[in-house]
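Deliverable D4.2, example record:
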Amino acid sequence: MESTGYHHITLRDGVPYAGRTGVKVIEIAEDLVKRGWDGQQIHKNYPWISRAEVYSALGYYYDHKAEIDAEIERRAQFDAQMRAKYEDPAFLARAREMRKALDEAKTATAGARRKRERSVSGAEH
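Output generated by the structure prediction step:
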């Protein structure tokens, strides 16, 4: 792990994390920016991260604010693109049709299996 100069921040493959946790600094920054959480609220929602790690992550965010804010915006744009793609009415209609066909095939298969089981059990009596 690379050193960042921040006591509770580690770099893994160039990505800053809060201590040795699996929580990225950008995720903590998003909680601050998008949800309006302060350090205490962030710690409450990530109880496995120490307060020192939370506040160090916030310090890292403020020292790298432009870069991290740009990445937060890039992520928001990507999320919007994915929602637009997968919430497309034509796509959803096709998905519903496929699901209906699958359900009908399962029902038909189950009905045929029950019919075979009845005929086999009837032949045994």
